[in-house]
Write a structure and sequence with these properties.
The protein is α/β, with parallel strands linked by helices and 327 residues long. It has a domain of 196 residues: CofD-like domains (Rossmann fold, 3-Layer(aba) Sandwich). The chain contains 13 helices and 14 strands. The strands form 4 sheets. The chain has a 7-stranded parallel sheet with strand order 5-2-1-9-10-13-14, with helices on both faces. A 3-stranded antiparallel sheet has the order 7-6-8. The longest helix is centred in the N-terminal third of the chain and has 17 residues. Bound molecules: ligand FO1. Ligand FO1 binds next to α2 and α6.
């Protein structure tokens, strides 16, 4: 067992936040204090948007706030105990989106970020600066420095920002596809491919495979970096007992023709030995019957409890993922 494994996690959203907390917990349980030196999180930025003149990075912020212990864990986004005075004022001005809440403390984050971006810092440098405020215990990298916000295209050709589709329409409008305009010109953010090349394991968090992990993998150069990595690539199923844990990932999966099942998501990522990504795939005890199907796809499947209902369970899951990589 490598005592200080170098870990890269690809993550986004609530599932990503809980899993990253679990990885940090598992490292601490192994007696590793400087977890930031060994844990790199590559975060989805497809959820990002400009609103009321500020740049929002929902997944970056969810993971940052969770690691800092200042997140609203009930709601799954924003700061705990936040207030909404500025948001009410914005609504009086008819500015922003009436269905989208910008908390007062959260707005401080967006203002700081936007200011630094306007001064010319790249998103990577901004995130590095933001990471200094709290001892996060992880190095966070955006998937890319390019702006490639996810757009949902409906069957009739209507296009809308992912956040409008997700928060205003609660994913009830059937999507034809998801796009990240301009992603063909994007590159992985500085440090991402290097971290993957140096890693002992790459973990795919149980995040939405389509709109969280999907955009990360769609950055040109990302899949090649993963394929070339000497590290094992271990994924964690976001589907438990045939259902999404939270959020509306099932609608996203249906839109790209993938069944909402742990085996189907594994097949979607594919076996590394067959030009896909995964060496191993963690599935829930509830899905044990799918183990053979996953193995038949050329992916080693491991059955383990996947519910991240508290820090200890999240850490146990992360430990199982490290174990799956032989670490
Ligand atoms: N989700 C909502 O359902 N309603 C909101 O008003 C809302 C505001 C919001 C503000 C900042 C932020 O970082 C996230 C916010 N979210 C909100 C969450 C976000 O829309 C999504 O859950 C994620 O992008 C999906 O991972």
């Amino acid at each position: 067992m490598t005592s200080t494994p170098r870990i890269v996690v690809l993550a986004g959203g609530v599932g990503g936040s809980r899993f990253v907390l679990g990885v940090r917990g598992a490292l601490r349980a192994r007696g590793i204090d400087d977890t930031a030196a060994v844990l790199t999180v590559v975060v989805n930025t497809g959820d990002d948007l400009w609103l009321s003149g500020v740049r929002l990075q929902p997944d970056v912020d969810s993971i940052t706030y969770a690691l800092a212990g200042v997140n609203d864990s009930e709601r799954g986004w924003g700061r705990v105990g936040d207030t909404e005075r500025v948001n009410r004022e914005l609504q009086e001005w008819d500015a922003g989106w009436p269905w989208f809440t910008l908390g007062d403390l959260d707005l401080g984050t967006h203002l700081a970020r936007t200011g630094w971006l306007r001064e010319g810092l790249t998103p990577t440098r901004v995130l590095e600066r933001m990471s200094h405020r709290w001892p996060l215990g992880a190095r966070l990298l955006p998937m890319t420095d390019a702006e490639v916000d996810t757009v949902v295209v409906l069957a009739d050709g209507t296009r809308m920002h992912f956040q409008e589709w997700w928060t205003r329409h609660r994913a009830t409008l059937a999507p034809a596809r998801f796009e990240n305009p301009g992603i063909e010109h994007a590159r992985p953010a500085p440090g991402v491919t290097e971290a993957i090349a140096d890693a002992d394991v790459v973990l795919l968090a149980p995040s939405n495979p389509v709109v969280s992990i999907g955009p990360i993998l769609a950055v040109p150069g990302m899949r090649a970096a993963l394929r070339d990595a000497s590290a094992a690539i271990v994924g964690v199923s976001p589907i438990i007992g045939g259902k999404v844990v939270r959020g509306m990932a099932d609608v996203c999966l249906t839109a790209i023709g993938v069944e909402t099942s742990a085996a189907a998501v594994a097949a979607h990522y594919g076996a590394r030995s067959r030009h896909g990504l995964l060496d191993a795939w963690l599935i829930a005890e509830e899905d044990e019957a799918l183990s053979a199907e996953v193995a038949g796809r050329g992916i080693r499947s491991l059955v383990t409890p996947l519910w991240m209902t508290d820090a200890a369970r999240s850490a146990a899951l992360a430990e199982a993922a490290l174990g799956a990589a032989g670490l």
